[in-house]
Amino acid sequence: MKQVLGDNQFFGINHNDIEKGNKTKEQFGTDESIVEFIKKSISLGLNGFMLNSNERGFKIISEIDFDETTEIHYSVPYPHKFATMVNENGMLHLLKHVLSNSTFNSLIRQAPKFIFSRNIKHLLPLIIDLEIPMNLKKGSYVYLQNIVTDLIIGLKREDLLLEYCKIIKKKGYKPGLITLNPSLLEKYVISYPLDLQKDLIICFNINKSGFNVFPSKENVEEFIQTKHSFKKMGMSILSSGGVNNINDSLAYIKTLGLDYVVFGSSKIENVENNHKTLATEK
Amino acid sequence: MNKSIIIYGFGRMGLTHYSILNQLIGNADITLVDMDKKINFFAKKNISANLISDVSKIQGKHDYAIICTPPMFHISSVEECLKRGDKTIFVEKPFGGVRDDYSKVISQKDKVKIGYVLRFIPVIQWLKLNLPIDRVTKFEGSYFSNTIEKKPKGWRNGEYSGVCNEMGSHIIDLAVYTLGLKNFQITDKKIESIVSDVDDIVSFNLTSEDKEYKFHFDWVNKKYRKPIFSLKYYLEDNSYYKVDQQKVEYFDGNNQLINSVSTVDIAFSTPYYLRGVEFTNQMQDFIKKQEAIASVDEALVTREIIKNILEP
Questions:
Q1: What is the signed CA dihedral for A192, A197, A202, A208, rounded to 10 degrees?
Q2: Per the CB < 8 Å rule, is A154 touching B272?
Q3: CB pairs under 8 A between A and B
Q4: Which of B272, B269, B234, B264 is nearest to B246 (CA)?
Q5: Other CB atoms within 10 A of residue B161 CB
Q6: Less CB within 10 Å around the terminal CB: N or C of chain A?
Q7: What pLDDT, in 10s, does the model give residues B95-154?
Q8: What is the pLDDT of residue A112?
Q9: What span, in angstroms and rounded, lies between the C-alpha atoms of A237 and A220?
Q10: Chain B hits for A80, Cβ within 8 Å
Q11: Domain A2-279 -> CATH class
Q12: Which residues pair with B282 in a beta bridge?
């Protein structure tokens, strides 16, 4: 099971304790402090790290060279940016933002298809181009954030998820889909071309307490145990810091047979302890 | 037979409710009404629902009507739905504005429910069951976010918007929901416009029967990446419950933590997750038992408080 450093602590996100999240954000006030923490974690034995395409994540990936063996798991988009845009100027401003920020070449390729069909599918390459830094190492994973994946599932526009995966692959990256509805997503993904499934990671919540595990812990355990061609990554494995017994929680995660786990902490010693516990034999 | 659903307004909330209902109700005929022709122009090719921009073209009665328009259209849309004979109507908060006439809605108020979604957060549901409301003497509610960074355009910079209507109404509603706040007397208020031309930071106190209430709302605070609310319920012995989105903590009069309950401790399942379990829980309650969803009477208490705060 590969281990990936999460990025919530860098950006003040704590789904179980918002005040704690705000405090850790202050700890990582500079880009250097984030990069140093990532590099320390990698030196402890973690396989890679995850970063979101927010302003700071984008900048770090654009400017810092990481070791060739370090896996980069990059997630798009930065939901807060788009939510603020809609709050201030309405839904259509999103479209305006995408069109006005895209390169001339991208527009020439995609805009006519979009204007002719009005199908948002043709805007996806433009949106993805805006979110991925030029310097992102080829072969890295690029995940679609759960707010988008799950909205697309709700809209019953699963074709957009397949399209997303194809575009990411075409750009030389590997696709990832973050979801809080893994069993619903599974229904669609199992019909994807096999070579695409083999490159794909589905990332979802799983933890011993069942915190934010949907529709239920039992259902997600069944999903994990079912044999699939795609890889499975567990997130929120420590219930966003809400568990009392970390060793019990990690022991539970080790029984599941996941391909990847992603976890974060603002303390490097916690990263080290979690890594050691997860790396030891069952 | 398929359930027929009509959704007014296809912004963020319309999109959210559409997605949730799409998952909760297997066979539904959904009509989306948005007067913005540009939105309809693009949505038509991307959503498998019937899209309408002209309300006069709406036909038949619907099992569920969902109103997510900007608030200045709330009351006229509800009237339209009632006139047509739609069975159950859901209106997003804040349910109109300070100057709207609610008299036509009140006559059929049992058909209308208001979307104060924070009621459906698991810790709030726990609180509703466990708070000893007879012992509560004082309530404090606050809301902070960085929602508005630049001056908003259109109605979001007008009397139907502002932190009281958009965010504060949720906190007032939580006082209404958990404590049964009804008759009130405003004792103190302060309103500031920082980024928008309407209320950005609001503080006020009120009394109701034997309880004191203190509110503070601020949606232009750069310290907060995500919206955060906090509630405090003081009991007669100075002990208190402190509540946020994730947990309820009970402290004694010396600020010593006695016990706490967090979302991690509360087992719940939801068939489909989008933006938070509370959104799905709210729609499940609306289409089934309607036990926790806000009534018109409750929403009008919140409306009346906001009216008293915002009007000179």
A1: 110
A2: yes
A3: 128
A4: B264
A5: 23
A6: C
A7: 999 889 999 899 999 999 999 999 999 999 999 999 999 999 999 999 999 988 899 988
A8: 83
A9: 13
A10: 225-226
A11: alpha beta
A12: none
At residue A87, does pLDDT exceed 70? no
Q: What residues of chain A lie within 8 A of the CB of B150, using their CB?
A: 88
Asked if residues A94 and A69 have their Cβ atoms less than 8 Å apart, the reply is: no
In this structure, what are the phi and psi dihedrals at residue A265, rounded to the nearest 5 degrees? -165, 155
Residue type (1 letter), A226: T
Phi, psi of B299 (to 5 degrees): -65, -30
Q: Is the pLDDT of residue A22 over 90?
A: no
| Closest CA–CA distance from residue B21 to any residue of chain A (Å) | 8
Residue corresponding to tokens 């949106």: A127
Q: Under 8 Å CB-to-CB from A182, ≥6 apart: which residues?
A: A202, A204, A220, A223
Q: Which of A15, A87, A147 sits opposite B275 (nearest CB)?
A: A147
Q: For residue A260, give the amino acid letter.
A: Y
What is the rounded distance in angstroms from the CA atom of residue B108 to the CA atom of residue B249? 40
Give the Cα-Cα-Cα angle B62, B65, B71 (nearest 5 degrees): 150
Closest CA to A278 of A106, A59, A86, A46: A46
Q: For residue A122, which of A80, A93, A160, A89 has the smallest C-alpha distance? A: A160
Structure-token match 């699939």, residue found: A228
Lowest mean pLDDT among B9-13, B43-47, B183-187, B265-269: B265-269
Exposure letters B201-210 (e unless 16+ CB within 10 A, then b): bbbbbbebee
Sheet holding B136-144, edge to edge: B185-192, B201-208, B211-218, B136-144, B228-235, B240-243, B247-251, B257-262
Contact A141, A183 (CB under 8 A): no
Candidates B146, B133, B132; CA nearest to B221 is B146
Considering only CB atoms, B264 lies closest to which of A12, A184, A211, namely A211
Mean pLDDT of B182-204: 96
**Tokens at B44, concatenated:** 């038509």
By the 8 A CB rule, do B294 and B173 touch? yes
Position A138, amino acid: K
C-alpha B192/C-alpha B196 separation (Å) is 10
B265 contacts in A (CB within 8 Å)? 209
CATH numbers and ranges of domains, chain B: 3-115 (3.40.50.720), 118-269+295-310 (3.30.360.10)
Beta strands in chain A (DSSP E): 2-5, 48-52, 71-76, 141-144, 174-178, 201-205, 231-235, 260-263
Q: Is the dihedral of CA A115, B32, A152, A192 positive or negative?
A: negative
What is the DSSP annotation of B171-215? Answer: HHHHHHHHH---S-EEEEEEEE-SSSSS-SEEEEEEEETTEEEEE
Q: How far is CA A280 from CA A38, A234, A274, A275, in A?
A: 22, 18, 10, 9
pTM of the prediction?
Answer: 0.90
A47 close to A6: Cβ distance less than 8 angstroms: no
3-state DSSP assignment of residue B294: strand
> Are B94 and B165 contacting, i.e. CB atoms less than 8 angstroms apart?
yes
Q: Name which of A21, A84, A242 is nearest B264 (Cβ-Cβ).
A: A242
Q: What is the number of other CB atoms lying within 10 angstroms of the CB of residue A134? A: 7
